[in-house]
Amino acid sequence: MSSLKLSTKINKYDTLRTVIAILIALIISAIIIFATSETPIYSINNFLFGPIQKLKYFSNVLEMMIPLTFTGLALCIIYQSKHFSLIADGCFFMGAIVASYVAINFTLPKAIHPVVAMIFSGIIGGCIGVLPGILKIKWKANELVTSLMFNYVFYFFGLYIVNYYLRDPEASVFASYRFNKSFALPRILPGTRLHAGFLIAILFIILAYIYIYKTKWGYEIRTVGDNINFAKYSGINTAKVIISSQFIAGAVAGIGGAIEMSGMYKRFLWDVTPSYAWDGVIIALLAKNNPKYVPLAAFFLSYLRIGADMMSRRADVDNEIISIIQAVMILLIAAERFLAYWKQREENKLAKEKYLNAKKEVQ
């Protein structure tokens, strides 16, 4: 009973830390707005309430949620095994490139075309995702460093593919040929750009939660993350678990790239990497690596970004203020000593309770 109480208290502690970190970040941003803006109330009003003023604006929040959800899920899966790879960025970007190739060069029925693109993108994303894990297992290479290096490799490799095989020479900007119309995902909200990728993202949230918390493979990933030595002595093939989890995470990110292309674009236009993996880090931190909290974290981050963008267009505050909010949140959530005294107090209280109960039983 005491251990259950302790677990409940720790969960409340983690939630409290996250909420307070968000509030502190928002208060700091409000102070900056009041110090720099000539119309601070108007600016804050647009920042906090702009995204819900019209259906079109709110749909923009939901649209931005989709890629954030996929990279957030990918990083949740990776971080469950305590391997801090950021290869999801390269997987997402190459997933978009592969999907663009399928969109331009394949002629398929409307219902099948985007699905085929997602399958190819998922396979390529998975193959890319395992590379830092292989280097970690074979040569003890730091997966954070190698994943960041691989991101640059695949970014420039992707641009090479677009430049030499997909680029439209008649376009006035850097762009691929137009996608076949059968590649586009259907809209699910009339008058907006919100597409069926939103429903696919919900499906992947459910599947990721089931995979991590309801299957043998998910249990093995969590065991490896909690204590890799214990996992080895228990007979778990830790190398296989690490590789498989990174393949699945890379596949999820790759599919996210395909869905972003299919839902939001008519041709490939990215001349710089969108860096969704860094956003995925924030999502995973806010969600505590639990897929069921990813949609809340993705919605929160998306809402802030749309609000900041509306504030920058309507008022005199740059939307880069969102970077300050993100930085403060990451610093406070990642800081182990932030509100640690509360957790220590609850642990001491429960330990004292347990001691007194044991003493009574002896007497």
UniProtKB/TrEMBL annotation:
**Key words, A-Z:** Cell membrane, Membrane, Sugar transport, Transmembrane, Transmembrane helix, Transport
**Location of this chain's protein in the cell:** Cell membrane
Q: Which coarse location class describes where this protein primarily resides?
A: membrane
Kindly give the membrane topology term recorded for this protein: Multi-pass membrane protein
Is Ubl conjugation one of the keywords?
no
Q: Does the keyword Transmembrane helix apply?
A: yes
Give TM regions: 20-37, 57-79, 86-106, 112-135, 147-166, 194-212, 321-342
This entry carries the following GO cellular component terms, namely: plasma membrane
State a single Gene Ontology molecular function: transmembrane transporter activity
PANTHER family tied to this protein:
ABC TRANSPORTER, PERMEASE PROTEIN, GUANOSINE ABC TRANSPORTER PERMEASE PROTEIN NUPP
Q: What is this protein called?
A: Simple sugar transport system permease protein
Biological source species: Paramaledivibacter caminithermalis (strain DSM 15212 / CIP 107654 / DViRD3)
Q: Provide the organism lineage as a comma list.
A: Bacteria, Bacillati, Bacillota, Clostridia, Peptostreptococcales
